Amino acid sequence: xxxxxxxxxxxxxxxxxxxxxxxxxxxxxxxxxxxxxxxxxxxxxxxxxxxxxxxxxxxxxxxxxxxxxxxxxxxxxxxxxxxxxxxxxxxxxxxxxxxxxxxxxxxxxxxxxxxxxxxxxxxxxxxxxxxxxxxxxxxxxxxxxxxxxxxxxxxxxxxx
Amino acid sequence: xxxxxxxxxxxxxxxxxxxxxxxxxxxxxxxxxxxxxxxxxxxxxxxxxxxxxxxxxxxxxxxxxxxxxxxxxxxxxxxxxxxxxxxxxxxxxxxxxxxxxxxxxxxxxxxxxxxxxxxxxxxxxxxxxxxxxxxxxxxxxxxxxxxxxxxxxxxxxxxxxxxxxxxxxxxxxxxxxxxxxxxxxxxxxxxxxxxxxxxxxxxxxxxxxxxxxxxxxxxxxxxxxxxxxxxxxxxxxxxxxxxxxxxxxxxxxxxxxxxxxxxxxxxxxxxxxxxxxxxxxxxxxxxxxxxxxxxxxxxxxxxxxxxxxxxxxxxxxxxxxxxxxxxxxxxxxxxxxxxxxxxxxxxxxxxxxxxxxxxxxxxxxxxxxxxxxxxxxxxxxxxxxxxxxxxxxxxxxxxxxxxxxxxxxxxxxxxxxxxxxxxxxxxxxxxxxxxxxxxxxxxxxxxxxxxxxxxxxxxxxxxxxxxxxxxxxxxxxxxxxxxxxxxxxxxxxxxxxxxxxxxxxxxxxxxxxxxxxxxxxxxxxxxxxxxxxxxxx
Lengths: 160, 537
Hints:
The structure holds two protein chains of two kinds. By secondary structure, chain A is an alpha+beta fold. Chain A is built from four helices and seven strands; from the N terminus they run βααββββαββα. Helix content of chain A is 48%, strand content 24%. In chain A, helix 1 packs antiparallel against helix 2. Chain A starts with 11 loop residues before the first strand and ends in a 5-residue tail after the last helix. Chain B folds into three domains: 15-228, no CATH class; 234-300, no CATH class; 331-515, no CATH class.
């Protein structure tokens, strides 16, 4: 086994629109940085400042590649008793959250997320260590997922 | 129950805290800060070399005294005002608190979410026979309720009643008869209780050592569940263990390395050291201060540590400046950590800390189960929290967990290739699941054992970074509530880790099915203790 295979339920990949949602802010940051370095290069007239711009561009491209791969690895699965969240490619993790341990569910969507029609669903348990947020869930699916999780949580609710 | 006028009832109507509260509360701290500032600044004023304070010289001493008195009066007035606006009551399912001068705040602590109830007595309050009651519930930072201050007996009675209700006992016969006089009239109630108080204090100081050590016994309207003392930490051992704990090693090592370096490398360490001391005296004083602070915290928190077992759960009692009587109902302990610093190995001492949902990670002294346990006491302490480890031979298993290496005792260990990542500890890492709990062991010189009951598992995680992936290793994390214990089984073989994750998910599911109910007295076979007040002593 190379990594956690989930036999209980199929992995549901997150929406590819999450790539856009993450690329846009990163693009803005790196665009501004490149612009700044170009301005510096033009103002000083030192050609080797252009090397800095190229380096920033290269890092930006790598970040874009990481984003694409991360989104590809991000998925969730609704098992019989637990919700599973898988994320990360280089630093990868699988989180198993029993429905009965859920304290509350958050659905969040920023302006860009709303424009793209996606949302982040986050589960909270009594533990601060639980990192169970699912980014890039299609908006209407997010609402359904939240309701399903809440229903299951109530059915299996255990104390702390 | 014979109720004479002075026996306390837990208020079902909105009630203020004791009128003496503003005098014991925060303004004393402000006064101390003020005094400290004066003390700090006095030499500068005398020398007159601190420019920023020159303007004070323009005022005569009388003016300063008047300003101080006004400041004092203002803080006191605000405290009194706050006290007037703070009210609490208890209901069958919650404790309610409302307070606030400008913005009103209402808070309820649901009893079915109760995690712990502490009676806290700072030194001043202890001398005068008062206590704060702190009710911890599950539900994030600052969701608990703190009632500052009540008379000690009232606080204990309130605690007992809260525990009684939270345990799921609701018989009406236990409820005290309705009050005849309105408790709202603070002036009258205060006057009569002040007289009581004086008599009460006089009685209490017939045994001053009990008052000072926070073991004072009081009459309560609702008796505490009977308790049996399990262990008590001798002061000598506490002091010795603090001297031999981790930070002390640094103090010991610093001159030693200097000496060795001078002898073997013929380096002028002394000259260098003197120069360093000369330049960074301030930093060194700070470090020493921190060290003393550490010693103080350990001794202050562990002073007179006593653990007892009662039907209401675990009772812990400790503290020098501030005594704390904690009650943690059954099934509220989320995880335990037994830790042994290197210098404790000779004596085989262990420090035991725990996660309880309400306590959070803020104050480590609150989350101690045993400040320094001998091996036998450590096993007893584990038994206190986990009476059934789910093992035919729990002590043997714990022995392997505390001192074992490799896979003896059925422990799952890190594979040898973990050596490259973790050369010192890999042989000492081990994980083992019993019927009821997961044991995670690690550490070569500084040893650690973490125990998480299966039914207390919040969620599980499997993580792997690039280095571990190249070695086919992974970590399994068991997410527990906020606190000093973070259980992680590190550097397992990937297949083992995946199998462990699946097995733990199943075990946690089964654990949740058979866990004790939140209202612990409703469990089968537990008859309620007599609710009637049987005064102590």
